[in-house]
Amino acid sequence: LGPTVTVGEILVEIMATTVGAGFREPQALTGPYPSGAPAIFIDQVARMGGAAGIVASVGNDDFGRLNVDRLRQDGVDVSAIAVSEDWPTGSAFVRYRPDGARDFVFNIARSAAGQVGLTPAAKDLIGRAGHVHVMGTALSIPGAREVILYAIETVRARGGSISFDPNLRKELLTDDGALDSFNQVLGAADLLLPSGEELFTAAGLNDEAEAVASLLESGIGEIVLKRGEQGASFFGRDRQRIDCVAFAVTEVDPTGAGDCFGAAYLTCRRKGMTPDAALLHANAAGARNVTRLGPMEGVSTLAELAVFIAETRRR
Ligand code: ADP
After folding, report:
1. Ligand 1 center to residue 90 CA distance, Å?
2. Is the CB of 258 under 6 A from ligand 1?
């Protein structure tokens, strides 16, 4: 029907190299790496051979060129990435806690990423789209929210489908508009890809089975729950459930796993694979991504996933 399209922040990511170190003392950092959850997602779609495009905004600077060059090279339609003369490319600084949790310092609102809007190029790309994937992080950008709601309506009218990864970041949940649009997107989604507690937030219920049942009842066709190193589960209509054990890998950098997982699941489904096969590929894409430093450095082709699946032990 048309490409998978997403909307939202393109960022450079700069990471702490010492687990437990904060950003209030000098330390060695690593980066810049191409990043931004929607960007990682769409890059993974394109690497797997799916038609893919993104509505976004970068600055006229090297951080912007680093991202756009990578996306273009990997096969993403970059025609709806605006280049701002007034704002620098957005950024994310990440540090890791000893328990594995992450803290981010984002610069999105007052960067080019905060300027995402419904440009003529965005309308053109959305007019050709067959699927819209919404990243929760993008709902913190007022202009992106407008594009997302327009894209949902347009793609729905064309007979296309919608997926939603809540991807909640405590640092970005700052205004009421984000919450309102969260509920609107949730109401429109055919496929929901929550991670851990996000399932409970989406359903407003604290029991996994109840939350899944309530969301399916509300009209979502498929729910794929990400469980980090515990793997993932698929829930479909008619109480269908499939569990997938994680691959045994050494985690180097967890950022981007969920984005690659969601992109792989969606792309496999759009290519006509069963939920079972899509879940296996998604688990592989998430696991393979965490073995590389840099959120977008571990994106996989279908061929790389096939080799990874054949050669990697399960937990
Ligand atoms: P998010 O990044 O959205 O929080 P997760 O951390 O749950 O998502 O990761 C997404 C998927 O990636 C998991 O469901 C799993 O399939 C895979 N994955 C993530 N971390 C690991 C890990 N340490 N070992 C193996 N697989 C992993």
Report:
1. 25
2. yes
Residue 284 Cβ < 6 Å to ligand 1:
no
Which residue has the least CA distance to atom 22 on ligand 1?
229
**CA 144 – CA 151 distance, rounded (Å):** 10
The alpha carbon of 305 and the centre of ligand 1 are apart by a number of angstroms equal to 15
In tens, the pLDDT along 40-76 reads 999 999 999 999 999 999 999 999 999 999 999 999 9
- Give nearest CA residue, ligand 1 atom 16: 283
The model's pLDDT over 19-35, given as tens digits with 9 standing for 90+, comes to 999 888 888 999 999 99
Task: Give yes or no for residue 175 CB within 6 A of ligand 1.
Answer: no
CA nearest ligand 1 atom 11, residue? 286
> What is the ipTM metric for this complex?
0.98
- Supply the pTM of this predicted model: 0.97
Ligand 1 atom having least distance to the Cα of 255:
2
- At 78-119, the pLDDT tens digits run 999 999 999 999 999 999 999 988 999 999 999 999 999 999
